Amino acid sequence: MGFSMEKLDFIVCLLRLLIGGVAAFFAIFSWSRSKNIAWRCLASGTVINYAGIVYDMFLTMGVFYDYDTTFLGFPLISIFFSIIPLVFFAIGFFLLALSNR
């Protein structure tokens, strides 16, 4: 039994949505229970990352078009969803490294 590339892409997309959704759910759940800014940054990065996954799926399906908002020829929204989660992760891990035990 072989998978065609289209089926494999579809399965990967569904897995990204499913696992990313579970991660975003637990990030939101832990956000409400945590007072630590480092953990809130990590949760924010996870939720924004999931929003980026959903946005990429919409781009793939043709619901949105990415060429409307550009900065120096680069799609602004795609750059936002690829850079901002990493910024939140970096800040969160930096704050965790600085925190006292």
* Count of individual helical segments: 3
The total count of strands amounts to 2
- Rg, alpha carbons: 17 Å
H/E series, N to C? Answer: HHEEH
The quaternary structure here is: single chain
> What structural class results from the helix and strand content?
mainly alpha
Q: Strand sequence of the main sheet, in spatial order?
A: 1-2
Mean pLDDT across every amino acid position: 87
Helix-residue proportion: over 70%
Shape: globular
Indicate the low-confidence ranges by residue numbers. Answer: none
Main sheet attributes: strand count, strand direction, barrel closure: 2 strands, antiparallel
Keywords:
101 residues, mainly alpha, two-stranded antiparallel sheet, 3 helices, 76% helix, globular
What this model shows, in words?
- By secondary structure, the chain is mostly helical.
- The chain is built from 3 helices and 2 strands, in the order ααββα.
- Helix 1 (5-33) runs antiparallel to helix 2 (37-61).
- The longest helix has 29 residues, at 5-33.
- The model has no long low-confidence stretch (mean pLDDT 87).
